[in-house]
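Hi all, a correction to my earlier message: I attached the wrong file for DUF393 domain-containing protein. Here's the right sequence:
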Amino acid sequence: MALTIFHDDLCPICRTEMMQMYRQHAEQMNLIAISTQADILAAHDIKLEDALTLMHVIDEQGKLHIGMEAIRVMYRRLGKPKTAWFTSLPLLRNFFDVAYPVFARHRYRMPVWLLGLNVKDIKDVCQDGYCELSVQQKAAQIRKQDHENL
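and the right structure:
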């Protein structure tokens, strides 16, 4: 059984990371793009704003993992066990558990060059090298698009 990974496909950071993992581990992951499949979130009682803020992963046993723990589960299963182990070390675990939500909430304001992303690949969702849509703005856009598609 594959991991179900809900990712913000409009976020250049998230999209880049997930596409790299998907190319290597497609058979082990059920990748859900939340901008186009928000109905699947609702089926799992996950709020759109929550999914846009923190990573959500459902493991093979059906357990929902959120935030840094979701990332650890994903990395353990999809070829990055050393990263999962490192972020789980006793002193570092607390740091990453606190730092990840801060990073996740502000990822749209970060300059893409700082993140090592190729700007030409993400210019469709970023202006002037920054991706500044707030979670609320993004959720509103997704809901509007879903409504128009009905």
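Sorry for the mix-up. The CA atoms of residues 37 and 43 lie 10 Å apart.
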